[in-house]
Amino acid sequence: MLKSRIITALILIPLVIAALFMLPPMPFAIVIIAVCMLAAWEWGQFIGFKSSAFRVPLAILCGIGLGALYWPVYASGLPPSASPIASAFLLASLGWWVLALCMVLSYPASARFWKTSQLLRLMFGVLTIVPFFFGMITLRQYGFQENAYTGAWWLLYVMVLVWGADSGAYAFGRLFGKRKLAPKVSPGKTLEGLVGGLVTSALIAWLFSLFVPLHVSLNTLLICSVISVLASVLGDLTESMFKREAGIKDSSHLIPGHGGVLDRIDSLTAAIPVFACLIFLIF
């Protein structure tokens, strides 16, 4: 298992970095739509769709819907950060993750209100996947006309931030973890690990502010980064909650040694839109 995880990571990480820095806006959006379609296919299990006869059409509808939403944004010639469509979904993500926080904190009692409704679970999937898509393209296309790589640095920063915070939380949790963060949802997470992840994220923000052209004040970067890391933890916990209710361990087995697409991007589905919303719409 460890060997396959390492091999897969060594293949995927260069591909992700290459996609960030080398793909123009439209091909990049197509790649992200493909990722979102796979995520929607996996989300079908949370809705209660066990058969591919339902999950494949769900993934296709996701791709068509994202394409239809993105086309007017792309055709306008304006950056996505100036698009009412992108802005609406980024703002909606804030409301969704506040609701998700309440659901996680009150789990399993909260499950009584949504586990019997396929429509609610479908809506939760829309509010997870669509803002993630718009967060990705909004960050990637930031400043694209002036410098094609500015947005790529922003996206790479958020990814490194989330992955670094996750590693810091794991290390601190193993060394000092005693108090459980959300034992009914994810027994392995601890409050000490959360603190370690936040400390790691602050260190990453400081280092990036010194060596990477992000063009933002350190104070703003720290505030946005800490909130985004907290959101990333919530994204992880929310997916764990849905998997627990669905009775599955991994969202799928598409990525050898890593589970499914949602298992790899669950933290990013929260952190990316929240960070984009904070940077472009609030700060």
UniProtKB/TrEMBL annotation:
Q: Does the keyword Lipid biosynthesis apply?
A: yes
- Record field: catalytic activity: a 1,2-diacyl-sn-glycero-3-phosphate + CTP + H(+) = a CDP-1,2-diacyl-sn-glycerol + diphosphate
Instruction: Write down the Pfam families for this protein, in alphabetical order.
Output: CTP_transf_1
Membrane-topology descriptor? Multi-pass membrane protein
Gene Ontology CC:
plasma membrane
Give the EC number(s) listed in the UniProt record.
2.7.7.41
Localization, UniProt: Cell membrane
Entry GO MF terms: phosphatidate cytidylyltransferase activity
Where do the TM regions start and end? 28-44, 56-73, 85-107, 119-139, 151-172, 193-212, 218-237
Keyword list (alphabetical) reads: Cell membrane, Lipid biosynthesis, Lipid metabolism, Membrane, Nucleotidyltransferase, Phospholipid biosynthesis, Phospholipid metabolism, Transferase, Transmembrane, Transmembrane helix
* Top-level taxon of the source organism: Bacteria
- Provide one Gene Ontology biological process annotation: CDP-diacylglycerol biosynthetic process
- UniProt main location, coarse: membrane
Q: In which pathway does it act?
A: Lipid metabolism; Phospholipid metabolism; CDP-diacylglycerol biosynthesis; CDP-diacylglycerol from sn-glycerol 3-phosphate: step 3/3
Matches recorded under PANTHER family: PHOSPHATIDATE CYTIDYLYLTRANSFERASE
- Which family does the UniProt entry place this protein in? Belongs to the CDS family.
Q: What is this protein called?
A: Phosphatidate cytidylyltransferase
Q: Which gene encodes it?
A: cdsA_1
